[in-house]
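Example 701, ligand iron/sulfur cluster.
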Amino acid sequence: MTFQALATDVINPDLCAQCGLCEAVCPEGLISCRDDTKIPLLRDHAKVEACGACNLCAEVCPGAEPDTPRSELELFGRTRRDDERWLGITEEILGGRAGRADMREASASGGGVTALAAETLRLGLASAVLACGRESARPWRAQPVLCTNEDDLIACAQATYQLSPHLSALREVLQSPRSSARIAVVGLACHIQAIRKLQRHPSQIGRRARQRIGGLIEIACSSNTLPKGTETFIEAEMGIALDNVANVKYRDNGYPGEFAVVTKSGTRRAEPVWRAIRHFKDFKTHRCLSCGDWLSGLADISICDGDPNIFISSQDAGLRREKYGSIIVRTDLGARIVAQARESGRLEAWSSAVAEDLHLGLLRKRNRRAFYEGQQVAVPAGPIPDYHETISPIDDDALVANPAEAKIGTRTGEGAEEERWAREKPPVRLDMCTEADLNAISPRDILLVPFGSFEPHGHLPLGTDRLICEAILTEVARRGTGLWLFPAFPVGFNFKYRGWPGSVGVSSHTLADIVESIARDASRFGLRRLFVMSGHDENREATVTGLREIEYSTGTRSIYCDWLDLAVTLARQISTSRSEGHASEIQTSMVQFLLPGQNYAPIPPAKTVQTGCGQTRHARDGHAKAGCGKAGIALGADDLFAEPESGEWIRSVDRRPGQRSLTGDPTYANAAKGQMIFERIVTRTLELTSALGRLDLGERP
Ligand SMILES: Cc1cc2nc3c(=O)[nH]c(=O)nc-3n(C[C@H](O)[C@H](O)[C@H](O)COP(=O)(O)OP(=O)(O)OC[C@H]3O[C@@H](n4cnc5c(N)ncnc54)[C@H](O)[C@@H]3O)c2cc1C
Ligand code: SF4
Ligand code: SF4
Ligand code: SF4
């Protein structure tokens, strides 16, 4: 066996991930990676005969066979289940960002990676961290860098969407017989797979890898890009000559950031990151396009963007966004690094989850994987033997479409809303129907009834609750069939803000009566299924009472929900302020999405708030951690993050005019978050209405 095995099995079928490990492990120093393509080849004058009986490079290469199940057995004592296909085996999932402001600022998604890498140095777990920097002679080219302090790490922060033989920088530590170095690694899935494979290898180099490499932190990877992608973007799209480039950053300046070039004269030029992502599409390798892993699942800690769709977020430059990441802890070592980093203040973290179905990078990866699995071509092995993607692939071009060409994305810009609605079928609005139209009602059809409230919402309109429910059910009526939309009821039962200027409500028995009357009369002309959505939590008891009465007297079946009931998990995942309810970050995000161009400027929270149980805390602290679930000024019982109580005290809520009618910190709101929540609720409502439509009216659900 010789280098020939690597060429035959990996390089020739285009399965080289360009990780650089073969260059690092070769005892004879025969391999180097080509400057343009980064593909390994034998050095000038090296002969394959020099390999002798060695086969090391082929045995540790992750290109064709990442060998995930064996590494999982070694690390976790088991392999992943089908439902763990893309995220792997997880111990804990957190949202998080660096504690240091300069680290956050320098980073791609909040600096969680940089903070945790810095923690491995502080704890003495590593003497250096392998990260991704730049060549000094060609500052637009990626190059592995061994960082020995926090400043080096900060200089290497942000995603670098460019292939480089990352692991080649481990050559010295692997080849030196007496190195005392211990290296932590930041890398992509293929880098981590390569290291785990090497650490399982029975050779001397494998033993050194076990002893000298530890603390593996991986970042999610949709796909990487050849250096040519960066070069042509700078030259052709930005009009900058490469020899005039002093520095390149891919996620610079805020969130999700810009592709920025600083020229030798000190001028900074930047393009939104979505333009670069689109451009890079044409500079991928077959290995990256057919890659079976978004995360290897083999690192001690894995991190992806907290915002699942940076592509869409980057299309709206006017939005305020906060950087944060989703941190997946996998091993004991990972848990220790995270715990110590939280304790030292390097990392701010809160419990969270990864919304797999929303991550654009993961969706693109699954699509491509599904496509290549269906072709007669070699693809790298995935983490579960014989597992095949079942989704029907969508054209990748459509997933990262230019909004100007494809007319998709957030509903921004003049006329965008009209355009969208004109393109697609209108909803059936009952108030616009004639008597004759009612002949089309079928017994399985459903009446959609939005209920709002009329009350102060801090910086948001008084009719916010009606506006949100009406928009959701209008979209549901448009997308579904057999759905009849009733006009939104603009007032509800007000309690907490009763007596405030702008508060107009009805009594709870009037509300129950109204719901019952609508349902009774609609049942007379054939609509005996009701879907009631409220935007106001105080409507719940009265509305449900009315619906129960009508079910008893007429057999009309109904579903009641508050709109946020249908997206609680997602809201918890994407809420940065960690306190959600009235006029909060999520509600403000919905209004910003639904009313683009209207300036309902969020009010920043007070520096500290007095909670109902007498604790004072910073408004941006996650109060779930504070352990306070009692009603108070900022921690209302309507707060999504409030902890449940075992019994409920009925008391007057201390909310008087002059105080602030908002929860959490709405300045973290943005339309992209609103769009995600809106889409999730519309989808979920369509599922529920479909179930309601199938129900036999004689049955109990
Ligand atoms: C090619 C590529 C594709 C990605 N695709 C996705 C995706 O689909 N979905 C998603 O959620 N996130 C993706 N990410 C990761 C994401 O962009 C963020 O890097 C990640 O969320 C970490 O953010 P952070 O602020 O915590 O990291 P930071 O604190 O900014 O640190 C990032 C660290 O990663 C290292 N690094 C950057 N680029 C590379 C590289 N090419 N090779 C090795 N190390 C590198 C840096 O040196 C730095 O140490 C991708 C990143 C890359 C490089
Ligand atoms: S995948 Fe890595 S180890 Fe395998 S050939 Fe490519 S650079 Fe070498
Ligand atoms: S690692 Fe071994 S087989 Fe591979 S090129 Fe070097 S000597 Fe040859
Ligand atoms: S797509 Fe796969 S092979 Fe390509 S860089 Fe990412 S993890 Fe490595």
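Summary: The pocket of flavin-adenine dinucleotide (ligand 1) is lined by residues 107-114, 117, 131-132, 156-161, 166, 186-188, 219-222, 224, 303-305, 325, 359, 361 (CB under 6 Å).
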